[in-house]
Amino acid sequence: MRFGKIIFIVLLLSCIGISVFAVDRFPRPEFDSGHVLPKITTPGARADVMGYVDIALLIVALALASYLSLKARSRRGLRLLGIFSLLYFGFFRKGCICSVGAVQNIMLALFDSHYAIPLGGLAFFVLPLVFALFFGRAFCAGVCPLGAIQDVVVLKPIRIPRPLGLLLGTIPYVYLGVAVLFAATGVGFIICRFDPFVAFFRFGGSFAMLVFGGLLLAAGIFVARPYCRFLCPYGVLLGWLSRFSKFSVTTTPDDCIQCRLCENACPFDAIDEPTPETAPEPRAKGIRRLAITLMVMPICILLGGWIGGRLNLPLSYYDLRVQTAARIQQEEEGTATGQTFETEHFRNTGELTNNLLRESADRQNKLQLGGWILGGFIGLVFCSRFLGLSVRRTSKDYGPNSATCLSCGRCFLSCPKEHERLKKLRGGGGAS
Amino acid sequence: MSEANTKKPSRRDFNRGLMRGAGLLAIVGVTAGMGRRMRKDNTVWQLDPDKCVQCGRCATECVLNPSAVKCVHAYDICGYCDLCAGYHQPSAKVTDTAAENQLCPTAAIKRTYIEDPYYEYAIEESLCVGCGKCVKGCGAFGNGSLFLQVRHDRCVNCNDCSIARACPANAFRRVSAEQPYILKGQSGEARA
Ligand code: SF4
Ligand code: SF4
Ligand code: SF4
Ligand code: SF4
Questions:
Q1: Which member of B3, B140, B185 has the closest CB to residue A18?
Q2: Which of residues 347-386 of A touch B (CB under 8 A)?
Q3: Could you give the angle at the alpha carbon of A196 between the alpha carbons of A191 and A202, nearest 5°?
Q4: pLDDT band at residue B5 using 50, 70 and 90 as cut-offs
Q5: What range defines the domain where residue B65 resides?
Q6: Residues B72, B36 share a domain
Q7: Is the CB of residue A188 less than 8 Å away from at least one CB of chain B?
Q8: Is 60 exceeded by the pLDDT of residue A19?
């Protein structure tokens, strides 16, 4: 009986064209047996209160990391804290949301009026930065799950030649710039998409990301924390702020006695040598240097901007909507034959092609403008890094660079003064 | 700590303090700016069943395996058909429960006899992989009572949902965690 009806309907539909959204082809039954319709179950999302727990734990962990790196000077404590963070923020919370990616939520909220940022996203972005401003990179020392997973595999760190380190160190700036551009224009969150360790935290992910993460961890045995130093976009912001932090980690608890024992103690090459005493630069030379700087800087920025402004096509290719629009256009003009997965299913939606084309054009315009700004920013970064325009540092002692030091505490025990301090502490404890 | 070691405030310390102030100002500025663009509730990802075209990517693109997207059934628009276009292969000759006659690749749809001629279809979520084959069948030949949803007891709420980035129908969006489903049928009408 039903069967016949179906055949009839199918025949009917094949005449008028099948609509996926059609409902009520069949009357809803009236049950004689009084059967009650089951309800759709709607298991809830994670309770908001758990979000507050995350924020509270973040604050506690940041405070603890600051205390352990600055006051208690305990590498062991930092390591334990790192393992806790790895377990909680990494494996338990499955890596989302994390501070490294939160900058994208901020950008999206700034530029997309439909998006409002949840409190958690804002807190995870802001809190580590505030701590960096006062206590150095406490976040990297023992709170960031990405840092923590790399920290456990630092076994045989080697030194990276300084020029190479400087060159690789520019990647995070580019990464940050592109991520901010893509987030602001609504293209997507690349920091999340290319997070190398989140697949481990979830025990699953795309094969490519698992391989990438595995390779990074393997490289991390020798090149300590490669993601932190040569990729992490959030590290750029943390570095900017911790450069001016009120308190920062020192290798020696006391005065430096120039014994050079700590020279190679930092696996991240973050310990600066003393700058040799030089006669102050003659005034005329200083002025000339400044003039050259002022001339070269705008050229770098403009050149970068010009290149960036031309990159909107390759950049927009990353966006699925733009890609689909371009392909649809080709298909309609006859320059491409056949349908791709995207165009075929886009046509199934019944959305107007013009809609898609307009959206795509709009996004490309934004990317072009953003490309100029991004290029200018990258030009500025390269210029100041390689033309020696960075602030000239003067220091008589060995000590961690406050911008690149990850506050891990590995160098403490290389300092003979630290051993003295510990002996005194123990002695003091014994006497009382 | 560096401060403890310096005897008298030098020009360098002063500059540092100045820059620190600037940094703090920037952070406060961003936070204050965000204050207006903030929401108290959290957001989660959901797909709009009216936009979904059952392309199959929900099954393959989720970071979880099997996917956090599952088929759900709006019983109140179901016709309780004997020959269910979501349950049976189009080629099925007999409307029995033999696996080769079922559309679902994992046999996740369970059917129970209610009364002549009505059967009820329920999804066993632990088996469903979110491929949408049944949804397509039901939408094309039935009442469209089967549809896909992100199930929040499974979804880990990625900051950037990987299915959302790959969905050709642009069906995914962020919704409030307090109303995390976009349902069909009567229970769905309440959402608007
Ligand atoms: S540098 Fe980046 S990834 Fe590394 S610990 Fe710091 S925030 Fe985390
Ligand atoms: S990816 Fe989009 S169109 Fe494809 S099944 Fe999922 S929601 Fe539907
Ligand atoms: S947010 Fe993540 S877990 Fe949830 S449906 Fe999307 S990809 Fe899957
Ligand atoms: S056909 Fe696909 S979507 Fe439907 S119940 Fe089976 S696995 Fe789930």
A1: B140
A2: 348-349, 351
A3: 105
A4: very low
A5: 43-176
A6: no
A7: yes
A8: no
pLDDT tens profile A20-65: 444 567 777 777 777 888 888 889 888 778 889 999 999 999 999 9
**pLDDT, tens digit, 9 for 90 and up, residues A208-242:** 899 999 999 999 999 999 999 999 999 999 999 99
Query: Cβ contact (<8 Å) for A31 and B115?
Result: yes
Q: Looking at CA atoms only, how far is residue B80 from chain A in angstroms?
A: 7
**Same-domain check for residues B34 and B47:** no
- Cβ distance A2 to B81 less than 8 Å, yes or no, reads yes
User: pLDDT value at position A204?
Assistant: 78
Are A199 and B169 an interchain contact pair (Cβ–Cβ within 8 Å)?
Answer: no
- A233 preceded by cis ω (within 30°)? no
The shortest CB-CB distance from A342 to any of B17, B33, B168 is to B168
Concatenated DSSP letters for B148-190?
EEE-TTT----SS-HHHHH-TT--EEEEETTS-----SHHHHT
pTM of this structure: 0.87
Same domain membership, residue B33 and residue B58: no
C-alpha to C-alpha distances, B5 to A85, A206, A406, nearest whole angstrom: 32, 50, 21
